[in-house]
Amino acid sequence: MGRSEQKELREETEQRLLELLIEEKIEEFREEFLVLHSYDQAKFYAELDENQRLQLYRFLSPSEVAYIFETLEVPEEDYQQLLAEMHPSFAADMLSHMYADDAVDVLNELDKEQAASYLTIMDDEAAQEIKELLHYEEYTAGSIMTTEFISIQANQTVRSAMRILKREALEAETIYYVYVIDDEKKLVGVVSLRDLIVSDDETMISDIMYDRVVSASVAQDQEEVAQTMRDYNFLALPVVDFQNHLLGIITVDDVIDVIDEEASDDYSKLAAISDVDAVDKGPFNAARKRLPWLIILLFLGMLTASLIGRFEETLNKVAILAVFIPLIAGMAGNTGTQALAVAIRGLATGEVGNESKWKLIAREAGTGLITGGTCGILVTGVVYIWHGDVFLGLLVGASIFATLTVATLAGSLVPLIMHRLNIDPAVASGPFITTINDIISILIYFGLATLFMSYLQ
Amino acid sequence: MGRSEQKELREETEQRLLELLIEEKIEEFREEFLVLHSYDQAKFYAELDENQRLQLYRFLSPSEVAYIFETLEVPEEDYQQLLAEMHPSFAADMLSHMYADDAVDVLNELDKEQAASYLTIMDDEAAQEIKELLHYEEYTAGSIMTTEFISIQANQTVRSAMRILKREALEAETIYYVYVIDDEKKLVGVVSLRDLIVSDDETMISDIMYDRVVSASVAQDQEEVAQTMRDYNFLALPVVDFQNHLLGIITVDDVIDVIDEEASDDYSKLAAISDVDAVDKGPFNAARKRLPWLIILLFLGMLTASLIGRFEETLNKVAILAVFIPLIAGMAGNTGTQALAVAIRGLATGEVGNESKWKLIAREAGTGLITGGTCGILVTGVVYIWHGDVFLGLLVGASIFATLTVATLAGSLVPLIMHRLNIDPAVASGPFITTINDIISILIYFGLATLFMSYLQ
């Protein structure tokens, strides 16, 4: 079955399921729907209208709907509506059947009262697990971990570990790592299912467990956790408190989402949008997300304009100067954006630390001198040939040289300073650094022009 | 053990290992080194100098070095040197012990002759596997898959499947999914280890296998594969040819690398750098990567300059016009970059397809009108208050309105057109779209100014 056939089959299935749903053929619907992967179920669900969804809730059990919600990806603001449609006890029941970390993600989108009321009517054990997770701050290891892991003791045999594993296999989010804890619930080792499978039944866990466990602390930044799991190729990572008590685990699927989110977050910020808005939202929604940035940049642009205004006298005498303003400002913006992107990625991946900060600055200064020198010489030549004025050529060339050097340096300094001040350096977007560099370039250009005015007339 | 203690311990270990290596204490070194995770081994290895590495090759077997190389991340150009240092038969032996997909990654960095000579002296089975993988084009599913998977037949029992699994557990890259094939080696189902564990020994595989297997075709783009695995939360995905023969599997760790690479690739392009250069490379290296872009942008900037030159007469009469050039051009660039980022992410995630293309364009046109209108009114007011000239205010305001509308539209049209022409839309970087929009904005601004000249003097 090729790719396109797979797609066709999926579309046919969706069409048939919709008909069965509308015609209220519950038996046939369940038979066909429940064999689908949760991702396909969630895709089907996301396309239903309210009446169809209400019908679906009558066809499925709370735990079956929970399975859909674990994979569902809809805009955050829609969850409130989706849960309000359900009977409250149905919704609470559904939440208690979800993996605790996924349930927390849903509850975080609701207003506090609504969330609290679900927790009240939910069964106690599930509510307890969820409440514990709700405490953790967003973007920390605690906020993406789940408490449904399998733990054993070091003095067990492989046989007894496998028995526990079989019993808990359907509840646990992953069974591919089993964590070894001591009497105080402190993490002392890890065994992979692969190790269990290839070992004899009578082997002691203490003999095959790996005791140099890499773990995350519960308050650690989720991006750091993702980096660790990527480096070590782990399918799951244990999360511990400061006394090394095992609190939960983070699974690789959550980490992929983190990597994806952080990357598109950095990307959006480079382009000065709050977040990449969903394509299916209307223009008002898009404008609302972009206008704050644009208005800030507008006022920074006004500052640039007023700066040029100071040089009106110079401009009145040599109007040709105006011709090169966008060229010089533009080049400053371009080189600044390049340096910015390198610095932000370096900070995000941890490649740029405290020691290598000065190295980066020195490197960028060097790069600025080289690119500035090359572009400066090029421009001098072109302007001279074009206007036949060697002084004009030298002025524009020298401005490009000075501007590119300073702008490259600024592009790396600004994010480093922000990082130092504990501001997310990615907030220094491309347009922001471009505007800063506009100002720098205009000062250099008109400064030089005013200084050497006598040669230009 | 907290995070900082973990780090301290790691540094201590590295220091001790280095001493043992230099003092040629082979027994103690092996004892301590071989218990480390391959990522930590690779980190240690990457910091050695040539003499120390040569020493290491005498301490470790080829298969032990293979384990390091599976995780090693050094700049691509370094592999040639690292392999050349080893005895050729040691290197070939090491390559044959690596997972085939990782060995292919290393061989792809060598020149063809060097790679071919290793394949000749390597053992036949490994060479055969690697040669097959070497055929696949970069960035396809084939290029990142491995052939070390476990397959069984549908008419086996769980007991016999578990026996195969135990036998192959140490060779296979993942044992957490087992693929079911028919007599012609066509893929017919998949069973997770979780399902095997919870089933009775005598159960038939055909009864518990999932037969709606999601697979990737061998020539499919790796980014699409990553998206599928992310959507379905798979730990591995089977790769088939057009007749559905099972060729290999892609594991989640490779997919994380793909997601990471593609994200930083898009990011770099938005900032107009060929790729985010490693921070530890010198300024010449950085300048070499950035200059091509800067020079292209320089000539586009010249075009803008010559365009303004056409309006020199207008400028001579009303020098104040020059003051607002960077403001208007800058705003056009900002709004264009925003629209560009949304379009590129939409295309990359597949959210923007053929049907939704027109919707995006209409949406961006609407967004441009709203942001342009808002900023235009703001600017008119500010310029009027500042210069006390209502016509100047209206001119700048109207230019901002028209420019933002057109620039927003251009920001989404350019990547869509490139996508249509089968050019990677991410090549349309922020600086590129900014320069295009510079030109558009200057035409609008000076066009309007020339038209309404009589009101301005």
From TrEMBL, chains A, B:
<feature type="transmembrane region" description="Helical">
    <location>
        <begin position="320"/>
        <end position="344"/>
    </location>
</feature>
<keyword id="KW-0813">Transport</keyword>
<feature type="transmembrane region" description="Helical">
    <location>
        <begin position="439"/>
        <end position="456"/>
    </location>
</feature>
<feature type="transmembrane region" description="Helical">
    <location>
        <begin position="291"/>
        <end position="308"/>
    </location>
</feature>
<keyword id="KW-1133">Transmembrane helix</keyword>
<keyword id="KW-0460">Magnesium</keyword>
<dbReference type="InterPro" id="IPR000644">
    <property type="entry name" value="CBS_dom"/>
</dbReference>
<keyword id="KW-0479">Metal-binding</keyword>
<feature type="domain" description="CBS">
    <location>
        <begin position="145"/>
        <end position="208"/>
    </location>
</feature>
<dbReference type="Pfam" id="PF03448">
    <property type="entry name" value="MgtE_N"/>
</dbReference>
<feature type="transmembrane region" description="Helical">
    <location>
        <begin position="365"/>
        <end position="386"/>
    </location>
</feature>
<comment type="subunit">
    <text>Homodimer.</text>
</comment>
<keyword id="KW-0812">Transmembrane</keyword>
<feature type="domain" description="CBS">
    <location>
        <begin position="209"/>
        <end position="267"/>
    </location>
</feature>
<dbReference type="InterPro" id="IPR036739">
    <property type="entry name" value="SLC41_membr_dom_sf"/>
</dbReference>
<comment type="function">
    <text>Acts as a magnesium transporter.</text>
</comment>
<dbReference type="InterPro" id="IPR006668">
    <property type="entry name" value="Mg_transptr_MgtE_intracell_dom"/>
</dbReference>
<dbReference type="Pfam" id="PF01769">
    <property type="entry name" value="MgtE"/>
</dbReference>
<dbReference type="InterPro" id="IPR006669">
    <property type="entry name" value="MgtE_transporter"/>
</dbReference>
<feature type="transmembrane region" description="Helical">
    <location>
        <begin position="392"/>
        <end position="418"/>
    </location>
</feature>
<dbReference type="InterPro" id="IPR006667">
    <property type="entry name" value="SLC41_membr_dom"/>
</dbReference>
<dbReference type="Pfam" id="PF00571">
    <property type="entry name" value="CBS"/>
</dbReference>
<keyword id="KW-0472">Membrane</keyword>
<comment type="similarity">
    <text>Belongs to the SLC41A transporter family.</text>
</comment>
<dbReference type="InterPro" id="IPR046342">
    <property type="entry name" value="CBS_dom_sf"/>
</dbReference>
<protein>
    <recommendedName>
        <fullName>Magnesium transporter MgtE</fullName>
    </recommendedName>
</protein>
<keyword id="KW-1003">Cell membrane</keyword>
<dbReference type="InterPro" id="IPR038076">
    <property type="entry name" value="MgtE_N_sf"/>
</dbReference>
<keyword id="KW-0129">CBS domain</keyword>
